[in-house]
Recover the amino acids of this structure.
């Protein structure tokens, strides 16, 4: 049976572990430097755990380093294993895993939260490896959890990571700002949810350029001015409003 | 039978006409100052059309001014009708309709496109009127097309309009910018769609503040720096990247 060992117990580790277990991949165990985290993860998924990198078993097919970008190289240098060692970063080079004969990148383009498992089915996972056999194995692993495998170069992966920040982190932040602004004015954010859903549903039918609407696109100076007056006491949001409105006008197709 | 007359033939007019006809509201006709637009709309919905405001019938229950904010007052002043005259603006005051005994606001919080009908069911429509009977009639009209009626003051409507720009226009613009950036680098925007869908699906379970992720939230200076290097030749996008990243960090809860 194909076996995986996970290093790290954060949101990505939990989401991958859940997907592996639900799709017939053997999870051989988990490592965390914090024993309580390792034990909690162990109980959650009913798998062995260790808190010492020297105790990581050496005979798994794939080792997943689901740790922060800053920790990847250090952790990689401390494990002695056979099998493919992969990291899950959108930005780090595969070369930080150079200690190992077999290495790769396994980066799901997805956003993960606590207490909520993301759906990997048809969700993209970017893979990289310098060895074509290892690439096949990583593709198999991505296929097993129902993901859509994307073969990318390092620079393409970084470009995708930046773009993911634009469409996910920044969009979600606009939702945060709208929620704060509405709640200050005793209006519930709930009211905007159908509009947000429609914004995304439209993408199945129209390209985002064709779906663009609003006062900036129409160069409706009266509305732009009134909106800025509503933001008179919100200098940070006002700067964002001005910059994005200008950008919409500049990008008008 | 409850009857409505629509003034204007744009995206909003088409979407409302379609919803009215599908929900048992009689559409008495449409006006456009451009005869070809009036005729096209007339054919599309099989209703009478006029291109002279003097010919607008005076006996409809509600007159919907689905025209640009700038045109509302002028059009309102040129029609002689009984029934409630409403505009559909998120920003304009109800007072621009003062010529008429019965007036109101009927503003759907939604984004409309050509060749694609938005779903009004459970989508909010903000209504305003100075008369409680007129308010009931507008609520009835909103109910008939399955919308969720929201009773708001003028300032609340304007605050909602501004917030709608943040969550719809600005998010969609970020999708446009991501698409352009990816296509310049021979990567399809399609790859990001599952992430975009997940971003919005999460809102059903988590508040946007709890759903926030990414390098700015983690204050991951290495990734922030590398992203900015990727944008070295995109000064406008770089400014947006910096400003939104700073705002995420400032709003960290």
């Amino acid at each position: 049976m194909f076996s995986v060992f996970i290093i790290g117990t954060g949101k990505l580790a939990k989401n991958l572990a859940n997907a592996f277990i639900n799709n017939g991949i053997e999870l051989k165990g988990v490592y965390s430097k914090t024993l309580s985290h390792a034990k909690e993860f162990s109980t959650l998924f009913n798998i062995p755990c260790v808190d010492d990198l020297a105790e990581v078993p050496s005979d798994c097919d794939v080792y997943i380093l689901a740790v922060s970008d800053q920790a990847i190289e250090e952790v990689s240098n401390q494990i002695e294993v056979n099998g493919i060692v992969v990291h899950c970063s959108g930005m780090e080079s595969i070369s930080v895993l150079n200690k190992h004969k077999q290495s790769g990148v396994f980066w799901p383009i997805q956003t993960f939260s606590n207490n909520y498992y993301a759906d990997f089915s048809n969700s993209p996972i970017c893979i990289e490896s310098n060895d074509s056999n290892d690439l096949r194995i990583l593709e198999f692993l991505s296929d097993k959890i129902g993901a859509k495998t994307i073969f990318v170069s390092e620079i393409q992966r970084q470009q995708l990571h930046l773009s993911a920040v634009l469409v996910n982190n920044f969009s979600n932040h606009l939702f945060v700002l709208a929620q704060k602004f509405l709640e200050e004015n005793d209006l519930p954010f709930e009211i905007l949810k159908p509009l947000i859903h429609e914004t995304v549903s439209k993408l199945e039918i129209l390209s985002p350029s064709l779906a663009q609407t609003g006062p900036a696109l129409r160069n409706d100076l009266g509305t732009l001015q009134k909106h800025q007056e509503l933001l008179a006491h919100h200098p940070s949001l006002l700067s964002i409003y001005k910059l994005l409105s200008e950008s919409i006008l500049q990008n008008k197709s």
Q: What stands out?
A: Chain B touches chain A through 91 residues (CB under 8 Å). The beta strands of chain B are 3-7, 26-31, 49-50, 62-65, 84-87, 103-108, 124-128, 148-151. The first helix of chain B runs from residue 11 to 22. Chain B has a mean pLDDT of 96.
